[in-house]
Design goal:
The structure holds 2 protein chains of 2 kinds. In chain A, the strands form 2 sheets. In chain A, strands 1, 2, 3, 4, 5, 6, 7, 8, 11 and 12 form a 10-stranded mixed sheet that branches. A two-stranded antiparallel sheet of chain A has the order 9-10. Chain A has helices at 2-22, 36-49, 62-70, 114-122, 148-158, 173-182, 192-195, 221-225, 245-256, 258-263; strands spanning 26-31, 54-60, 76-79, 89-103, 111-112, 139-142, 168-169, 186-191, 196-199, 202-205, 210-214, 232-240. Chain A contains 10 helices and 12 strands. Chain A folds into 2 domains: 3-95 and 233-278, D-Maltodextrin-Binding Protein, domain 2; 98-226, D-Maltodextrin-Binding Protein, domain 2, CATH 3.40.190. Chain A is of the alpha/beta class. The relative contact order of chain A is 0.20. Chain B is an all-alpha fold. Chain B folds into 2 domains: 2-43; 73-293, Orthogonal Bundle (MetI-like fold). Chain B has a two-stranded antiparallel ribbon with strand order 1-2. In chain B, a hairpin with a 4-residue loop joins β1 and β2. In chain B, α4 crosses α6 (151-175) and α6 (151-175) runs antiparallel to α10 (224-230). Chain B is globular and about 70 Å long. Classes of the chains: A alpha/beta, B mainly alpha. The A-B interface holds A 60-64, 66-68, 70-71, 85, 139, 144-147, 165-171, 182-184, 186 and B 66, 138, 141, 147-149, 231-235, 238, 242-243, 245, 253-254, 256-260, 264.
Chain lengths: 279, 294
């Protein structure tokens, strides 16, 4: 009995093996949680058209995306930052994204200067009343080292000023927004794709948080396009070596689908009036 | 004839069983040795390859591997502190519940409660962490005006998580105390309380010691539940209500983004190795306590 079962099992395995080996019908992506909503939505739309292809997308943070694709653990590594020191990785820039400085709504501050923002994140200003707001202690919420959003924020706002680490650390765009919403006095940074929603033809801030203007420049799509608003970056998807057929088709699909890009809070290349080098 | 054949067959089965058992235990020993060896090699690269000092790793509070600082003191203190908190609260409480079940509770209550306690062991740590995040953190935030995240929240969650370990092990320790001691004590006119406090607890002390040490081992290795409520600030916490990090939570926060061979990756491996050493130390301690009893 058991011998027959074993034979059947072996036969089944022998028949199944070539099918598994020949079908390369899945793509995996991991990395930036700022880029995650776009790739996720694009993957759903793309799979509706190509139901033989299975695409799975997870977050983890930009540096996770880079290390995972470098280790060939995933096909596509999503990142807000350049993958320096990885000669095998090929960069595919998909769009631009802006990052908001977001706060708990109860602080009564709408605008800060870049210097004030540095002082807040460096831990020098510790109460909102010192920047004209309510008497509430400031709680800085950071992203961990693996975060590209953190890298973009430090690069564009902090410069050489070290970020204070005494606040909280949240490991994804989504958890940052939840933490800011529930923690009085909280301040953090997150991509437009997390802080804004597209309704009735224009963007609004998601419920429960407030966005700060920096030097009286609001974090809007237009201000990113003209380069007035400082915190933005190109969003990259890396492949390990030249993209194969499935990968390059999916990448082209993401880049070309301007409706999804726009609706989710990202910015098309062609709308940018400045370069990264102009910043 | 048939007997001989049957005996031969039994003999073959026995030899086969022996081979399987030996193979399994050999495989087990080799895997453990590989695991410890791998961690030892990767965990010391920080010192052998990057030439960082062990002193800096253990006693410097500055952790910024991208700038060459690899001090893990903040995480070591975080781990020690939440563990100490958990054992200070959960330890006595767990022992008390164990004693109650073994000595005082009516049989029916004890036999109903024991499975309930055992179920607690099986609850995944993410569930404890999730409950801590949704119930405990807001409670602490609203009563103290802090962020709610920090050592206090993690300590409370951990005290709950080690309870089942401490309860069942100390209950077992009480149950193996010979009845002659109970009977002798009661015959001498001691009350039930005096019997427990003066006779049974001292007699079960090494078993209870083991229960507490294994509770510590459970606490220091816990990751997910405390990562959710600690706040994960990589600094030495200013107090019970300040966000902090532990060795385990720091590893899980940064491991994904640590490039192969980077200073960050080597630092995280050193932390993992340190956790392994702590675990081994606790096991040695358990053996010593148990031997003292025997």
């Amino acid at each position: 009995m058991s011998r027959t079962a074993l034979a059947a099992l072996l036969l089944g395995a022998a028949l199944a093996a070539p099918a598994v080996a020949s079908a390369d019908t899945s793509l995996t992506a991991a990395g930036s949680t700022a880029l995650l909503p776009l790739v996720k939505a694009s993957a759903e739309a793309y799979q509706n058209q190509h139901n033989d292809l299975k695409i799975s997308v997870t977050g983890g943070g930009s540096r996770v995306g880079i290390t995972q694709v470098a280790a060939k653990a995933v096909d596509l590594g999503m990142s807000d930052i350049l993958a320096k020191g990885y000669p095998d990785l090929v960069d595919h820039r998909v769009c631009v994204v802006g990052f908001s400085v977001l706060t708990h709504p109860g602080i009564n501050v709408k605008n800060v200067s870049k210097k004030q923002l540095q002082d807040i994140f460096a831990g020098k200003i510790t109460n909102w009343k010192d920047v004209g707001g309510a008497d509430v202690k400031i709680v800085v919420i950071n992203r961990p080292r693996s975060s590209g959003t953190r890298a973009v924020f430090t690069q564009t706002i902090m410069g050489d000023v070290p970020v204070s680490e005494t606040g909280l650390t949240e490991d994804a765009t989504g958890t940052v927004i939840t933490a800011v919403r529930t923690t009085p006095g909280a301040i953090s940074y997150a991509a437009f794709s997390g802080t804004k929603k597209f309704e009735g033809g224009h963007y609004t801030t998601v419920e429960g948080i407030a966005e700060l203007s920096i030097d009286n420049v609001a974090p809007s799509e237009e201000n990113v396009q003209t380069g007035k608003y400082p915190i933005w970056s190109y969003e990259h998807i890396y492949t390990n070596g030249v993209a194969n057929k499935d990968e390059s088709r999916f990448l082209a699909f993401i880049q070309s689908n301007s409706a999804i890009i726009h609706q989710l809070g990202y910015i098309l290349f062609r709308d940018m009036k400045v370069n990264e080098t102009d910043r | 004839m048939t007997n001989v054949r049957a005996a031969g067959k039994a003999h073959r089965t026995e030899r086969l069983a022996l081979i399987v058992l030996r193979g399994a235990s050999g495989f087990f020993i080799v895997s453990i040795a590989l695991l410890i060896g791998y961690l030892a090699v990767e965990g010391t690269k920080l010192f052998t390859v990057d030439h960082k000092s062990i002193f800096e790793f253990l006693f410097s509070p500055t952790f910024a591997p991208d700038q060459g600082h690899i001090g893990a003191l903040a995480f070591i203190l975080g781990s020690l502190f939440v563990t100490a908190f958990a054992i200070a609260v959960g330890g006595p409480f767990g022992v008390a519940v164990g004693v109650f079940f073994a000595e005082l509770a009516p049989k029916r209550v004890a036999s109903a409660m024991k499975p309930a306690i055992e179920v607690l062991v099986g609850i995944p740590s993410v569930v404890y962490g999730w409950l801590g995040l949704t119930l405990l953190v807001p409670l602490i935030r609203n009563t103290t005006g802090s962020t709610g995240f920090g050592l206090l929240a993690a300590g409370i969650v951990l005290s709950l998580m080690i309870l089942p370990t401490v309860v069942s092990l100390s209950e077992d320790a009480m149950r193996v105390v010979p009845d002659s001691l109970r009977e002798g004590s009661l015959a001498l006119g001691a009350t039930r309380w005096e019997t427990i406090w003066r006779v049974l607890l001292p007699a079960a002390s090494s078993g209870i010691g083991v229960a507490v040490i294994l509770g510590i081992a459970r606490a220091i290795g816990e990751t997910l539940a405390i990562q959710l409520v600690l706040g994960n600030a990589p600094v030495i916490p200013a107090g019970l209500l300040s966000p902090a990090s532990a060795l385990t939570s720091e590893i899980v926060m940064d491991m994904g983004g640590a490039a192969q061979g980077s200073l960050l990756q080597h630092s995280l491996f050193s932390m993992a190795f340190l956790l392994l050493l702590i675990a081994m130390g606790l096991i040695v301690l358990v053996k010593l306590v148990a031997r003292k009893a025997a």
